[in-house]
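Q: For a teaching session next week I want to show students how multiple molecules come together into a single three-dimensional assembly. I've collected the sequence lines for a complex. Could you give me the predicted structure tokens for the whole thing so I can convert them for display?
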Amino acid sequence: QQQVKQSPQSLIVQKGGIPIINCAYENTAFDYFPWYQQFPGKGPALLIAIRPDVSEKKEGRFTISFNKSAKQFSLHIMDSQPGDSATYFCAATSGYSTLTFGKGTMLLVSP
Amino acid sequence: SAVISQKPSRDICQRGTSLTIQCQVDSQVTMMFWYRQQPGQSLTLIATANQGSEATYESGFVIDKFPISRPNLTFSTLTVSNMSPEDSSIYLCSVENPLGTGELFFGEGSRLTVL
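A: Of course. Below is the structure for the complete assembly, covering every listed component.
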């Protein structure tokens, strides 16, 4: 019930491509869905987040698409750059504190 | 945002010893969180630490193995006791955004290797 399933585990795209990372959840009480970006040797940092009252949110080159009925959400990175190479985690929570994280997607953007 | 400093950033420890990780935040926060990230894995919440009360541990984590202190609103420690190679992980301190947005800020982590 508390799981967040994330796919793919790893992803390689060419510069300028649009990597898409997908997450699915079971707990309908979840009401906050953030994405975190983690570079090697660093802690995760919030990238973008969405709440269920909207179906899409854009911040710069990063877009979250949210499908409440399917209990799925995804991250799209437009015009991806080598500097976007990192591990991305989706997460979900029904409150402000205890996040359930997906297993992560290691993204490599080749030059 | 909140700036979180963790010490040590990395350490190599012998089996059976204990290590205390310190977490300092540049602003007062109600709750602090300790996560474990095993190599190539996701983040797992160990416990939530409130100032002035006992930490709340998640399933699979116990106080005897991971004692936590929270002496004030800007500082916490996590001790990894009687370490074994299975405890080799990155341990991350985290706090919620003091503005109440739901965002979590993370420290850069403490990478422990147990031999």
